[in-house]
Amino acid sequence: MKGFLLDTNVISEIVKPEPDPQVITFLGSQSELWLSTIVVHEIEFGLQLLPRGDRRTSLGIALAVLVDEYRDFVLPVDRPEAEHAATLRVVARRSGRVLRLADALIAGTAKAHDLCLATRNARDFDGLDIDVANPWDASDLFAPLQVAQQQV
Question: What is the pLDDT of residue 148?
Fold first, then answer.
């Protein structure tokens, strides 16, 4: 593992007026942070759903600055990411769970690039062959949680 892929909920947290201090500590302690194009999509989708006004404008500016800062660290979804995502969805389905397409593509990107997924929703990825860390959980701050591995 060489870094962290940030889930949408991490990005949403850091643009809040008062983000969780543990999330800020977690991010500040990492040397390599990445975004997926799927996260960029989810951020933009959520932003466009907001009614026009000051809040949408200020969030739009903050998110634009953030995405611009990460422009060299945004990973596209290509064939390897898509193939890993499909495998992860199959594993989830065979265990009786549903892995949403966006989550599967984000997780597939983490898997394809040997990154740990930083997310508040660690349980969504239980039983999948990816590393997950919860920046809101102090016990996860510096060591990713190895999610139970399954043969695929």
Answer: 32
Contact 115, 2 (CB under 8 A): yes
- Report pTM: 0.87
- DSSP β-bridge partners for residue 36: 75
Q: Is residue 22 part of a domain?
A: yes
What does pLDDT average to over the chain? 89
Residue 151 in domain:
no
Compute the distance between CA of residue 90 and CA of residue 81 in angstroms, rounded to an integer: 14
Instruction: Give the list of residues 6+ apart from residue 74 with CB closer than 8 angstroms, or none.
Output: 34, 35, 36, 37, 40, 67
Outline where DSSP puts E strands in 57-137: 74-75, 116-118, 131-133
Listed in order, strand segments (DSSP E) in the chain are 4-6, 33-36, 74-75, 116-118, 131-133, 145-146
Q: What is the CATH number of the domain that holds 114?
A: 3.40.50.1010
In a domain, 100, yes or no: yes
Give the mean model confidence (pLDDT) for residues 77-87. Answer: 98
Residue span of the structural domain in which 117 resides: 4-146
Cβ count near 109 (within 10 Å) = 28
| CB-CB contact of 133 with 146 (8 Å) | no
